[in-house]
Structure formats: structure tokens, C-alpha cells
Amino acid sequence: MHHTPLSQVRHRVAAGHPLPFNVYRPDTTLLLARGQVVQSTAQMESLFERGTLVDMRELRPPTDAISQAPRAELPAMWRAAMDHLEVALRRPEPVTFTTALDDAAQPLQQLIDRDPDLAIFQVLRQEDNAFSQYGVMHSVHTAIVTQLVARRLGWPHEDRERAFKAALTMNASILELQGQLAEQPFAPTDEQMQRIRAHPEASRDLLMLAGIDDPIWLRAVAEHHEERDGSGYPSGICEPTELATLLRKADLYTAKLSPRATREAQAADRVGRELFMRDPGHPVCAALVKEFGVYPPGCFVTLASGETGVVVARGSTVMTPLVAAMTNGYGAPLPEPVRRDTRQPLHAILGVLPARQMRARLQPEKIAAVLD
Question: DSSP per residue over 102-158, as a string?
């Protein structure tokens, strides 16, 4: 086996988070298994100083694993990739941040490419995410929307890469605050509002300190809350960049789909309609609605048969996605989800079902396997 010192990949580990790979003693015997948690920063520093090692094969991007995995294994890969990104975003340190972000972004983009429907599913089905993780999860969800919409708009690969990373980092300065806001049962305080209004420029400055020097990326982060009518912030400009506008639309869309302590997630069909009606002539809005459809993957629905289920893939039209039925016509949970083609009159969608009314437990691995 070929090994490298753990200290050389310190940007990929953090105290309090599961280890993304095995850690070996200097004699190459196993010390800590993948998934174990190093509880304190002092313990982590001790591992660096002791000369512990990592098998270089475990550091390679999981390209083959993602492309070859059965669909039922992809939800677990999504969770692992999000954990990896959280470590990177919460430690935007100079010198290492660019590499850490690249390492974390790559598997996420591969997962989107492997199964765009399952990527959209991540955006809509967020019930198991802790509110404390809201900042990081919202960044990922916005990046998913940004990536898919930029592709539909025909943006070149380099521009899509930049857009994806800009979405991941646009809120870098307020990740902790976003978690607080998601779980607090009252409106933002005056102090919190000041931080919210200052965060676009604060995030840009933080990224600059961490070594990001792409002017288009940095400007988009600074302008991602600006509006063409001048009502945005922090500067009230009327001509935000095209990338900043894409970030703004994706940000709004995913925020409305996210539950908070004070409200449930809004219905996907309503969110898409409101976004389009707010600015119907804008190509980003049109592309987003076309990409996600009226009933995007992850949306709970009621069928003409009386069954209820969850959308698992977009269909031949925006009104006819594929659904995994989770309950029978009497509301009783099915032993296994059953694939339904909503082009069939018996299985046509009657409407969106609020999450609280779904009587069956959502099991992502079983839902994903419906399309295998």
C-alpha cells in the first residue's frame, strides 16, 4: 500500500465529524476506522504530530464507485458527500481551502450527473436534516439547482463549475447563523438582520482571504441578493451579473422548499409557479420551471387511485412524472414502494400532499431502487 501523512490532507478532516477514510499508525497498522469521530481539536492535532498515515487509494475521487453503484446505494453516497462538504465549508482556511472545496465539490457534481432526479430529490426531502446543518444543506441544495439550470441554459462547462462553487460558498460567512435562524421560534433580531444584510460582501471577503481570486465568482457572491429593480442588498444595484441572478433565483427556490421551526416547507408546485410569475420573462425562471417541472422528484402526491406516494423521476411532460406509491388506496403503508406511471388515468396526480399527511415512512434507499 502507498501511504501519505494525515497532515498532508488535514483539510479533509475535522474534530467532531466522521473520518472519511481509515487512519493508520506510522507502521501502517490500522489505528482508526473510517467513520470514527475524533472528538477534539487537540486529539486531531495529536494525530498529525504522531505521523499517522492515510492510504492514498482512499483519497482518490469516487468516480468509479458513483458511476457503477446500484441506484439504491446512491442516497448513502449523497450523505457522505454532504458530510465531506460540511467539513470543507466550515474551515475556509488560506492555502488549503481551494483544494478542500475542489475535493468536496467533485463527488457532488458526479452524483448530480449520475442521477439528476435523485439530486432534485435531495432538495425537496429535507425532513431528516438537523436545523443546525441548515446553512450547509441550503448551500448544497442551491448548488444542485444552479448546476441543473445552468446546464439547461447551455452554459459552458467552465461557467457551470464556477456557478456550482459560487452557490456552495455564497453564504460562507453566515453558515452558523442560518442554522440558528432555522431553529429559532421567532423572527430575526435587529443584530441578526444586520448580519444577514452584510453577508454577501462578508462572504466575498472571507473567500478572498481563503485564496479565491476568481473575480466573476467573487462578484456573484457579493451580488447574489441584488435585484434588477434596485430593491436588493447590500448595495441596491440594478444590474447584478448573470451568475448572481442565477444564484438569487436558486436561493429563493430552495429556501421556500426548506422547512423551518416556524413553518413547514412550501408545496413545490406553488413555489415554482410563484417564482415564474414573479419574473415570467426571465430566462433563468423559465429554465428552472422547465427543469424541475410542476411535480419535481421528492414531491409527495395523491393519485387518482387513492394511493399516495413520492415523485422519483421526471416524466415525458411536466405534469406526468414517475411516482413511487407508498400507501394503498385506503391509506395503509405498502410493504414496498411500487412504481406508478402518472400518464395512466388511474395513477394521474390529483395534487401535492403535505409531508405531515404522508402516512408511510420514507426510506430513501427503497425509493431509489424503484427505478433500477
Answer: HHHHHHHHHHHHH-HHHHHHHHH--TTS-GGGHHHHHHHHHHHHHHHHHHHTT--HH
94 with 212: CB under 8 angstroms?
no
233 Ramachandran zone, left/alpha/beta (phi>0; psi -120 to 50): beta
84 by Cβ neighbours in 10 Å (0-12 / 13-18 / 19+) ranks as: buried
Nearest to 258 by CA among 266, 247, 269: 266
- Residue 228 CA to chain centroid, in angstroms? 26
DSSP for 261-313 reads TTBPPPPHHHHHHHHHHHSTT-HHHHHHHHHH-SS-TT-EEEETTS-EEEEEE
Instruction: Kindly report, residue by residue over 340-353, the tens digit of the pLDDT.
Output: 999 999 999 999 99
Give the full edge-to-edge strand order of the sheet including 308-313: 333-341, 322-327, 308-313, 300-303, 349-352
Where exactly are the structural domains of the chain?
Answer: 3-59, 63-292, 300-369
Contact 74/115 with Cβ under 8 angstroms? yes
Is 70 exceeded by the pLDDT of residue 235? Answer: yes
Distance (Å, whole) CA 349 – CA 343: 9
- 63-292: CATH topology: Hypothetical protein af1432 (1.10.3210)
Sequential DSSP letters for 157-218: HHHHHHHHHHHHHTTGGGHHHHHHHHH-SSPPPHHHHHHHHHHHHHHHHHHHHTT---HHHH
CB-based contacts of 213-221 (< 8 A; 24+ apart in sequence): 214/162, 216/162, 216/241, 216/243, 217/162, 217/165, 217/166, 217/169, 217/243, 219/243, 219/244, 220/163, 220/166, 220/170, 220/244, 220/247, 221/166, 221/169, 221/170, 221/172, 221/247
Query: pLDDT tens digits for 126-166?
Result: 766 667 788 999 999 999 999 999 999 999 999 999 999 99
pLDDT value for 302:
97
